[in-house]
Specification:
The protein is of the alpha+beta class. The chain contains 7 helices and 7 strands. Belongs to the DeSI family.
Length: 254
């Protein structure tokens, strides 16, 4: 068994001394002062004097090695012993060959697939604990914020589409009401009278549901009644209120 060591750097490869100094200060405040995290590069050392990490390149693998603690692109901060691996040196080399194929340099993403994600994957295959949460917390927070923003945008687009569709249905409904006022209610309207009585509440609900879902009214009231397996019964004109209740009750029981 051998130690697995995580080497951690402040990310100071911006090309601007002022920006690099700001990043170092941010890391001191948020990691050293508050303990939340910072902007870090990491690499894993196992067997030998080299560390292994991942970065962007246009062609080939993004997996690379350099002498431990000596990456010239960043400012060295500290190391952490993550544990001991039971993998042999032969197995470690096999894992690195697999990772080299699976992590091409062009797939690098600052938030979703960076050097810290690579080290997490490497440590998992070595059978040791993953990186402490603070090492990659800023990237994870940024990735979550991006996903939330993207989902919100999708929901807003869906809501806009639904509002437009509902507006079209409402417009057709208003136009229909206007035509009813001018020309009288058409035979298929839920408010039309047949034999002096009004259409049943169940038929009216069916008519409204059909209008909302299809954007059009049933061609005739009898079609909507047959689709629901129900045909409203009209009581004789001479019956009193009790006869109306009996008729209504018997029609709902049928």
């Amino acid at each position: 068994m051998t130690d697995v060591i995580l080497h951690i750097y402040d990310v100071t490869n911006s090309g601007s001394e002022k920006t690099n100094s700001t990043i170092v200060q941010i890391n001191k405040i948020f990691k050293d002062g508050i303990g939340i995290g910072g902007i870090f590069h990491s690499a894993v050392q196992v067997y030998g004097e080299d560390e292994w990490s991942f970065g962007f390149c246009e062609q080939g693998t993004g997996v690379f090695s350099c002498p431990s603690g000596k990456n010239p692109m960043y400012t060295y901060r500290e190391f952490i012993v993550l544990g001991k691996t039971s993998c042999s040196i032969f197995k470690v080399n096999q894992i690195l060959r697999e990772l080299s194929r699976e992590w091409p340099g062009c797939s690098y993403d600052l938030l979703a697939k960076n050097c810290n994600h690579f080290c997490d994957e490497f440590c998992e295959r070595l059978g040791v604990p993953k990186l402490p949460g603070w090492v990659n917390r800023f990237a994870n927070a940024g990735d979550t914020a991006f996903a939330v923003a993207e989902n919100t945008a999708v929901r807003l687009r869906q809501a806009k589409t639904e509002v437009v569709s509902a507006s079209k249905v409402a417009l057709r409904f208003i136009v229909g009401l206007t035509n009813n006022v001018r020309n009288g209610p058409p035979p298929e309207s839920p408010n039309s009278n047949r034999g002096g009585g009004s259409a049943s509440p169940r038929f009216q609900a069916s008519w409204l549901k059909n209008m909302i879902t299809t954007g059009a009214k049933p061609s005739t009231s009898s079609e909507a009644e047959n689709e629901n397996g129900f045909e409203p019964r009209q009581p004789p004109a001479h019956e009193d209120d009790r006869a109306l209740l009996r008729s209504s009750s018997s029609s709902h029981d049928s």
